[in-house]
């Protein structure tokens, strides 16, 4: 068993092994793409590096709005900072992280070449993570505060599901515009990022000295 492990390690470290060639080619492509990104105009660089923050900021606004709606419905008047802080921070971090993992990083590492796939991913992330997730997150936060401070009468276990469905319906209706905004923002951002990726590919294809790119 130890010998098999050593053989596998040697095969991976061999320069001629398929795994090593694939890793080196992918690493080289990422280096070239990053170098081309650094040569683009500042506006494109800023959009590429910080565009997901805009989607995350909108998610924070959705979280704060949903939090405010639930607080008003449940008559919660205390612990405003305790409920507002996670509703601003968690949706922001979650949206930025998910967009980076599923759209931006695959695009600019050369793993995602399909424009439709990138745009659909951006729209879905904007809708689910940037729009709906903050609303679902605000529900347990404010439900726990309502139960802790007895700000609103809560039903027994037999009517609990119906109560929260009824309570959540007006919030989801009000937040529908926020979710739609996040969908459009995600679509726009993914489209712009794919456009920047196409610019990088065009620069790579029109380069007169490929060896210079790899230097």
What is the strand and helix layout of this fold?
Elements: H1 2-13, H2 18-38, H3 42-74, H4 80-108, H5 115-149, H6 160-174, H7 176-206, H8 210-214
Helix pairs in contact: 2-7, 3-4, 3-5, 3-6, 3-7, 4-5, 4-7, 5-7
Could you tell me how far the N terminus lies from the C terminus, measured between alpha carbons in angstroms?
41 Å
Low-confidence runs of at least 5 consecutive residues: 1-7, 9-13, 210-215
Our count of helices gives: 8
Q: Strand fraction band?
A: under 5%
How large, in whole angstroms, is the Cα Rg? Answer: 24 Å
Strands, count = 0
Mean of pLDDT: 84
User: Largest beta sheet, briefly?
Assistant: none
Q: Write the H/E string, N to C.
A: HHHHHHHH
Which percent bin holds the helix content? Answer: over 70%
What would the principal axes of the Cα set say about the shape? elongated
* SSE class: mainly alpha
